[in-house]
Specification:
CATH class of the largest domain: Alpha Beta
Number of helices: 12
Oligomer: single chain
Strand order of the largest sheet: 4-3-2-1-10-11
Largest sheet: 6 strands, mixed
Shape: elongated
Number of domains: 2
Structural class: alpha/beta
Order of helices and strands: HHHHHHEHEHHEHEEEHEEEHEE
CATH architecture of the largest domain: 4-Layer Sandwich
Number of strands: 11
CATH superfamily of the largest domain: Metallo-dependent phosphatases
CATH topology of the largest domain: Purple Acid Phosphatase, chain A, domain 2
Radius of gyration: 28 Å
Length: 404
């Protein structure tokens, strides 16, 4: 049972003196050796009695406070030095790409009459450099650097062919190419470090060449290219994925910056590389948020990844609504399963089925990436997967079978 004993005037005076000295109730209460709620109540009573602070000896531990201020200064200087180093290496590209305004062709009224909309090609989970051995997965897939290069080229060419079917004259204002993370395999697991085709940094440079070629080709075809980018979990150089400074510990982020620097003088391409884990942008009247998807965890029996993704989308919508960043459609990768729902798009992977999926009895899925159109009035209209294996053999069955 708590005590109903009223505090003495001495105790009230102690609290009002501490209130004048300390900047927080927690610190003052700790100094006096009482509960913070008790401290606040006594300050309230002291003020109602008209008590004022008296001149008292200093109660701040100056040496502790000085060390705290010195540590804060060192941290600020370190962050400033880190930013300066990054700027020296990459120039001011990092600042520009993090604070980019969407190009007008994405939001303005279409200049092309009866426009079919603006296409989005979603490239994520390339896992560049990973080696998937066919003998370990019943020969249903194979992946290495050479196959990755071929699949990325096939993906871009197939996307262009599909969009030509919708608009033979290719009457599009431009194209959005979303880069959704896990662009490289990385060496976050011992088995990856041992089996990857190349170490991480040469892998980044190899992918840089292929992506630069792909984006340049798309710019030649569509004229305008908008490239929102977020980092994944595989490209990190830390043991665990970080919430603070996630981008500066990711080789995905380095790859994006090198791409932006490569196209710095090409006004056809606009890169958006935010500092956080999400990229919010609008195509005409449809608002998107791009995230990698590693923040959604767990699984739900028969429905698999859909449960945690739907719950994660619900939480993100709630959070974004509170900070004036509401969105219509969330797009994410990470799960290597192509799903296109009304308010949610989950990407497949360029890598395709691997040893991890096989060992865990996950359903087979062909390597694929997502492609869709955003109409000025109707939002998402045409939606289609882009299969990236050019010569996948079809089952040898008769076109029609009539029982005798």
């Amino acid at each position: 049972m708590g005590s109903n004993k009223l505090p003495t005037d001495f105790e009230l005076q102690q609290c009002i003196d501490a209130d004048a000295v300390f900047q927080s109730a927690q610190t003052a209460a700790k100094h006096l050796g009482i509960n913070p709620s008790t401290y606040r109540h006594r300050v309230y009573l002291a003020k109602n009695k008209g008590l004022v602070s008296k001149k008292a000896p200093p109660v701040i531990d100056k040496s502790t406070e000085l060390r705290r201020l010195e540590n804060e200064l060192k941290q600020a200087q370190k962050e400033s030095a880190d930013s300066k180093k990054i700027k020296e290496i990459i120039g001011d590209i990092a600042t520009k790409t993090a604070n980019m305004k969407p190009p007008k062709w994405m939001e303005a009224k279409p200049a092309i009459p009866h426009s079919s909309g603006i296409p989005t090609l979603f490239l994520s989970d390339l896992h560049w450099g990973e080696n998937v051995r066919p003998s370990q997965i019943n020969y249903v897939n194979q992946y290495n650097l050479q196959i990755a290069r071929e699949r990325l080229k096939n993906c871009v060419d197939s996307a262009i062919d599909l969009l030509k079917i919708i608009s033979p004259k290719m009457e599009y204002e431009g194209i959005v190419v979303a880069l959704g993370g896990d662009m490289i395999s990385g060496d976050i697991h011992e088995e990856l470090a041992e089996s990857n085709d190349l170490p991480t940094i040469p892998t980044v440079l190899d992918l840089l060449n292929s992506l630069a070629s792909a984006l340049g080709h798309l710019a030649d075809i569509f004229g305008n290219v908008f490239v929102p980018c977020v980092t994944g979990n595989h490209g990190r150089n830390t043991k665990k994925i970080r919430s603070k400074d996630r981008h500066h510990t990711s080789f995905d982020w380095l790859l994006f910056q090198l791409l932006a620097r490569h196209f710095e003088n090409d006004k056809r391409l606009t890169f958006f590389i935010p500092d956080g884990s999400d990229a919010s942008y609008r195509i005409h009247s449809t608002k998107y948020v791009l995230t990698h998807g590693d923040q959604f965890r767990g699984g739900d029996g028969m429905i698999g990844a859909l449960g945690p993704i739907i719950r994660g989308d619900h939480r993100k919508r709630s959070r974004n609504g509170q900070i004036d960043l509401s969105y219509d459609v969330m797009i994410c990768g990470h799960w290597h399963q192509y799903m296109h729902l009304t308010r949610l798009i989950v990407n497949g992977s360029l890598k395709g089925y691997d040893e991890y999926a096989y060992t865990n009895n996950f359903g087979f899925e062909q390597p694929q990436q997502a492609l869709w159109l955003t109409h000025p009035k109707h939002g998402i209209t045409f939606r289609m997967p882009v299969y990236v294996d050019r010569d996948r053999a079809a089952p040898k069955t008769a076109w029609v079978s009539i029982p005798k």
